Amino acid sequence: MEKSITYFEKPGEENTAAVIEAVKIRAIEMGIKEVVVASTSGKTGVAMAEALQEEDINLIVVTHQYGTTEEGKWDMESQYVSRLNEMGVEIISQSHMLSGVEKSLSRDTGGISRIEIVADTLRKLFGKGFKVAVEVVIMAADSGALSMEGEVIAVGGTAYGADVACVIKPAHSNNFYGLQIREIICMPREK
Q: Are strands 58-64 and 90-94 parallel, antiparallel or unpaired?
């Protein structure tokens, strides 16, 4: 099997349109029916939803929990939430999963690892957007938003927008080592 990978020189929001196009092409090519995208404000989620709206693909937008930047507040912007709701896109909001996978690590390694090591390893070796892509798939799985019947495409970003996409066999947080990163669709070269 031979597939292409798109590499961006630098991480960042300027890569979002290229990531969305690459995700759409790969999902159609592989028959993948679920895409999980990280979106803090909802802007990237709406852009992905608009690109996929004519396709038979279930989009799940994952954002972090209330109180991340301001106590009691949600970072999703109402205009994007409204648009996602109009398009029937599921929005998942929960705590960052790579601080809650400890149960799986403790069970499989005897408690010698800490989830911060996993998160830092992904972030430092592959980049923040890559860590986010892995994390949102676990969050979507634990929220019951994924069918868990095949591969999904996960999309993450370094700060704003999207700069990473990969094909992942999802797993729940209590089976972290069951997750498999099967393909990289695109990612930045610099971290």
A: parallel
- In whole angstroms, give the CA distance from residue 174 to residue 61: 21
Edge-first strand order for the sheet with 90-94 is 6-8, 180-188, 164-169, 152-156, 34-38, 58-64, 90-94
- The pLDDT assigned to 119 comes to 86
How far is Cα 129 from Cα 31, in angstroms, rounded to an integer? 24
Distance (Å, whole) CA 11 – CA 156: 11
What pLDDT is attached to residue 111? 59
Q: Residue 22 is part of a domain; what is its CATH number?
A: 3.40.1380.20
Does 160 map to a domain? yes
Cβ pair 156, 162 in contact under 8 A = yes
- Cα–Cα distance between 23 and 47 in angstroms, integer? 12
pLDDT of residue 104: 63
Residue type, 149: E
- Those residues of the chain that have pLDDT short of 50 are none
> Which residues constitute the domain of residue 88?
16-164
**Does 179 fall in a domain?**
no
Please give the single-letter amino acid code of residue 22.
A
